[in-house]
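Onboarding guide, step 5: your first structure request.
Type a short instruction followed by the sequence, for example:

Predict the 3D structure of this protein.
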Amino acid sequence: MVSQAAATDNGRTVASRIQASLPVMPTAMSKIADVLLENPAAPINLSITELAEEAGTSAATVTRFCKLIGYSGYTQFRVGVASDIGRGDAHESWRADIGREFHPEDKPREVLRTLLNEHVRGIEATAGMLDLDELESVARAIATCRHLDIYGIGGSAVMAGELQARLYRIGVNAHCWGEVHGGLTSAALQSKNSVAIGISNTGRTDETIQMLSQAASSGAFTVAVTHAPESPLAALADVTIITAAPDLYLQPDDLSAKHSQLFVLDMLYLLVAQQNFAETATKLAASAMAVSGHRRPQRPARQGRRPSLRIEEPAP
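The system replies with structure tokens like these:
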């Protein structure tokens, strides 16, 4: 059955057809929509079977999806995608790359309000989904492990580095890997006394999946940090920690997704630090003292005067 929105407007883009049909899509089709809204050009490079695998559904469901949004089949759907790309419409590029609720003509205050609301919602949603008992068990495993690997590619590598730096400073033998060869080598050296964490917002990053899978094969206790509980990364992990993803307009690599990830990783760091508070405090003090000589002393503020920025006038 073709949706009314798609059937009555043959000039609409693929993205707008998907958005119009989202409210009536079954769960299996909504997974396809998620993949396509995240990567609008995917059908150009993927066969119908490959797209179905990417979305975790079947080729028959992809065909029904195409018909729902107004195409007679996958071939015609791919032509529609190619036409959108060839059209090169600036507004469509903006919506695909920046977001479906941000607009080029928005005033700064509108952008600020929309962005702030999304970031706050993301962190609040993440907090509501956390299993604190499970998170505490992960923290205990990290605090007592022989070796910790943290894997992430691209933006997730930045998050891996943040967690590694925090944990290393309190005495955890932590290492982060954003390059698959080094990560696989380290994962192969893991054991049952090790912990491995894979960070991927979509849970579908091949390199992260490979590294975490290798660590699991080596006997490590594995943890996935992702917004997709049914993703391949989550499927192979002993524990999955779910973070909220931008739902309407921001792309998965935007900072609202990163803030949700960082919120979880900061929580994990604090729980690890609690496992041996006295030792943690000692190590933090020692590391602070080690770098204190490289910080300039703070100047006391003059009483009765407020700091000001003086701009020199050019000489006549």
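Each response can be followed by summary notes, for example: The CA atoms of residues 43 and 51 lie 7 Å apart.
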